[in-house]
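Hey L., structure's done. Input below.
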Amino acid sequence: MSTRRCEWPTENPLLLAYHDAEWGVPLYDDRRLFEFLVLETMQAGLSWLIVLRKREGMRRAFDGFRPERVAKFDERCVQRLLRDEGIIRNRQKVQAAVTNARAFLRLQKEYGSFSRFMWGLIGGRPIVNTRRSVRELPATTPESDQVSKALKSEGFSFIGSTVCYAHMQATGMVNDHITACFRYRQVQRMVRRRL
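Output:
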């Protein structure tokens, strides 16, 4: 008997591994949250598979997704990144990573952690949906609108509601595994153990 999954991972090994181990798992680690913020920004207009294929290159190029290092990138660093074939080479997205690293550090300092700020925007607990098909997945929600508005007001860029909802799904702020997916219940158990 085959394992039931959400429909979107297809048969691609990268997508399957990501779905089975990472997507939807609640994250509270600031560095990992920053990584997904950069990755989701890079995804805008592209497939997630492209992002996964470039992930290691971006990890190297963005100094292990350390926001304190990325915040110090200057124009020379941006130009170097735009020549790096191992990453998604879009000036607006690369510049947004730098801008967002600076805003990220300000929030981290003000709130004690970026995680505290983000999870506070949704009441501190994951939103649990009961979707039966990926066709039911929205691109945005009122909550992602709220997160986008809050981040923009704090100086983040390239951070619309669609990017925010993808970030919320990836980092487990939302459990959007379909109910028949084996990960749906596993993620729910992780959440209960933490509460």
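The chain has a mean pLDDT of 96. The CA atoms of residues 62 and 153 lie 24 Å apart.

-- N.
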